[in-house]
Design goal:
eight-stranded parallel barrel, Immunoglobulin-like, Type 1 dockerin domain, 31 strands, alpha/beta, globular, eight-stranded antiparallel β-sheet, 768 residues, TIM Barrel, 23% helix
Length: 768
């Protein structure tokens, strides 16, 4: 039995018997409880270095610009460091040579003539055979995959599949203003993709993207879809991915990659390829490429994750993509980074999943990306900061992480500084930078060892504690480096633990964890005694309770807070002890769990505050927040009005609370008598009997704009129906019917023409 299965067995037995002493299975003729020693055995070369079995279960290193030959030279080191997967730069044919070229060539007339970004300018969708490519040829790619697989390593490729390279050579300013997309495609593409060019398989006319992602800035959802999926990303000729010819071309590229040894893909600019769920520009591109590939190659992993930065555009939920692939959560990344950079005085070191968009199973996190590095967004991060971010990402349960291998560990204040550093580094080089350090190795091995064992996360005294399986934990000192800790342990068994980075001993006794973190600011500790551990009956994590039905638990030791917010997409609860600086999680606090959207168009979020904390603030993470509140009991709240400081005062209502009873044993899928969840009451009735709206506010934003008129027009055309309180707000002329006259009234109101309506007035209806 491997270590991961033994851990899972321990947890199952612990919960089932609800006692403090657990009997383990015997391995061979001797019973062994020392997790540290078992981990040391698991990571030996003869045990495949303890690597995860799949891409999704392990950790990825982004071998940015590394040649296949240099990757082969570093395979053993990569395996020793605990990386399961190597992500290689785009391996297709390119519009210009990259061999012998610097990562950042000096600019000519303000524009770099070549460099790392050339890998994102395809000339063809097939594995490169040109000798002028810095990565290598198809034969070298195949050899790299073969050698990696011998060590249990996986290979995924950075796939650029929604556009081709431009026609310019970047010697001087780019001045092509033609709206014919064929005038923008690089000439070399004719050699590799003559059919695509002959079919003019590009979106026409040529329009550069302007990122109309925000519906509330005055764009319709039509504009957003068109801009994101039909226009040119960064001015690059945009393929019409709805065409069968394009889909067949990309599918054949995927087949070639998989048959050459690739285990999966990273999709560049994934949100710029439409899905079958889009309203105006839907297509079956993903079904006819990625899903078709998985169906035809069932024995291959065909892992995939998509690069989606910030959001998919209002009205385009992440679920359009997470049903297909894992997706980057860049918003949470900045919270993790801020927690480290601000030394525990801000940010959110352990974002909660599932959030409104992601679960731990479909999220991708990184310590930084090549874009944030080269553009200056993270270029000033030190080795220590980047590796702390990595520990906060990689030590988490079932979160797939990507470690960016910098070509040079020197920091730079901005893009210009990084370009100066990279002007002396040649494409294809593979430097032994921070990815080789002991703390990176320790974190990777920690997560490989604990597999999918449950996690419990907390931050105390500026130390984040990620407990796994009751038998190990990763500690990150947000406030600095070396630190002696004496903090609450939530699920760890009593006994002695050993840090795999420093060898320091830690002790858990009476619910307290004590020991010393080393100079990296990181510790990875394992239970290190030869006697059976005394595992406490684990505290239920309330954040795992399903609240999507609108039933909210009352749990011993917590106050439950339900907050109804209009216009918020996320909510955080910052709680502290009155008169002290003792808080649970640094500002903006613990992310609240999204439950549902109620009948009034409000998002309901739930949070759980330990009873020892008596003050809190609820905020959206972007500056909008409530006044300071005091915890008195579990309750429901809604936005009432803003005070003179711009902070929300609150009204209260009675959620459908129920007393939560901890299940006595885990769900057994083979036992139909075992419930998956504790008994819950029926779905709630209306949460409170007050209805509020603004006359004319048909889109629910709180303001009267031309979009309200557009929203009504969509409704009248049966294109997108208005429901609930928005329908009441849309009726502006007082005749009791929604007609084109209601549109006219809004237009006249915006033109300051008095029509005798009540548009803009707030209406409150109190039901009996």
């Amino acid at each position: 039995m491997n270590a991961k299965k033994l851990i899972s067995l321990l947890l199952a037995v612990t919960i089932a018997v609800s006692c403090f002493t657990v009997s383990f299975m015997t391995v061979g003729a001797q019973t062994d409880y020392n997790e540290y020693e078992k981990m040391q055995e698991a990571i030996k070369p003869e045990n495949n270095y303890g690597l995860a079995k799949t891409v999704n279960e392990g950790k990825i290193i982004q071998a940015w610009n590394w040649s296949y030959a240099n990757i082969i030279k570093n395979l053993e080191k990569l395996a020793e460091q605990g990386f399961t997967t190597i992500q290689v730069s785009p391996p297709n044919e390119l519009k210009m040579p990259t061999k012998g070229v610097k990562v950042c060539e000096p600019a000519i007339d303000g524009i770099a003539p070549n460099g790392w970004w050339m890998f994102y300018q395809p000339a063809g969708f097939q594995l490169n055979e040109s000798e002028d490519n810095a990565l290598g040829t198809k034969a070298e790619f195949v050899k790299m995959c073969e050698e990696a697989h011998k060590l249990g390593l996986k290979v995924i490729v950075d796939a650029v599949i929604n556009h081709m390279g431009t026609d310019d050579d970047h010697i001087g300013k780019y001045t092509n203003t033609s709206t014919d997309p064929m005038d923008h495609v690089n000439p070399r593409a004719a050699q590799f993709e003559p059919e695509l060019l002959a079919a003019k398989a590009f979106h026409s006319p040529w329009v550069d993207m302007t990122y109309k992602e925000n519906y509330w800035d005055g764009w319709s959802d039509y504009d957003i879809e068109e801009d994101l999926t039909q226009h040119c990303t960064s001015g690059l000729p945009d393929l019409d991915t709805s065409l069968q010819l394009v889909q067949d071309t990309i599918y054949e590229y995927f087949v070639e990659l998989v048959e050459a040894g690739a285990d999966g893909f990273r999709f560049d600019a994934a949100k710029h390829i439409e899905t079958s769920h889009d309203t105006y520009f839907a297509s079956d591109f993903w079904e006819d490429t990625l899903l078709k590939l998985r169906a035809n190659y069932p024995d291959k992993e065909c892992y995939a994750y998509g690069e989606i930065l910030n959001k998919c555009g209002d009205g385009r939920p992440f679920s359009e993509y997470t049903e297909l692939m894992d997706v980057t959560d860049s918003s949470s990344y900045w919270g993790i980074k801020d927690a480290v950079v601000n030394m525990g005085n801000g940010g959110s070191p352990t974002p909660y999943y599932p959030s409104t968009n992601f679960t731990k199973e479909n999220v991708i996190q990184w310590n930084e990306s090549h874009d944030t590095y080269i553009d200056g967004g993270t270029s000033s991060l030190t080795i220590q900061q980047r590796n702390k971010i990595w520990a906060l990402t990689a030590a988490r349960q079932t979160i797939t992480g990507v470690y960016f291998a910098r070509p040079d560990d020197r920091t730079g204040a901005n893009r210009a500084a990084i370009e100066a550093i990279c002007a002396n580094i040649t494409l294809g080089d593979a430097a032994l930078t921070s990815w080789t350090l002991p703390e990176v190795k320790a974190v990777n091995q920690f997560d490989n060892y604990f597999g999918d064992a449950a996690e419990y996360n907390s931050t105390q005294d500026k130390v984040t504690l990620i407990e796994r399986g009751g038998l190990g934990a990763t500690l990150v000192n947000l406030g600095g480096t070396t630190k002696t800790v004496n903090i609450k342990a939530n699920t760890l068994a009593n006994g002695t633990y050993k840090d795999s980075i420093t060898g320091n001993e830690f002790t858990v006794a009476n619910g307290k964890l004590s020991g010393s973190i080393g100079t990296t600011g990181i510790a990875c500790i394992y239970y290190a005694e030869d006697t059976a551990p005394e595992v406490p009956d684990p505290t239920d994590d309330p954040w795992q309770i399903d609240v999507s039905s609108g039933n909210y638990p009352i749990i011993d030791g917590y106050n439950t807070v339900v907050y109804s917010a209009k216009g918020w997409t996320s909510a955080y609860i910052y709680a502290w002890v009155k008169g002290t600086d003792d808080y649970i999680v640094a500002w903006p606090g613990q992310e609240m769990k999204f439950a549902l959207t109620n009948d009034y168009g409000e998002s309901q979020f739930v949070g759980y505050i330990p009873v020892e904390y008596d003050c809190y603030i609820i905020n959206d993470g972007n500056g909008d927040q409530t006044v300071d509140l005091e915890v008195t009991e579990s309750l429901g709240m809604y936005m009432a009005s803003k005070n003179s400081l711009g902070k929300w005062t609150i009204g209260t209502w009675d959620p459908n609370f129920y007393n939560y009873e901890k299940p006595t044993k885990p769900s057994d899928p083979d036992d139909p008598t075992t419930p998956d969840n504790p008994t819950q009451p029926p779905a709630p009735s209306n949460p409170y009997n007050k209805i509020e709206y603004i006359v004319g506010d048909a889109d629910g934003t709180g303001d009267i704009t031309i979009m309200d008129a557009t929203t009504i027009q969509f409704h009248l055309a049966n294109s997108r129906l208005i429901e609930g309180v928005k329908l009441m707000a849309a009726e502006t002329d007082g005749d009791g019917n929604l007609t084109i006259m209601d549109v006219t009234c809004i237009q006249m109101f915006l033109a300051s023409i008095d029509k005798g309506t009540n548009i803009g007035e707030k209406v409150t209806i109190v039901e009996p």
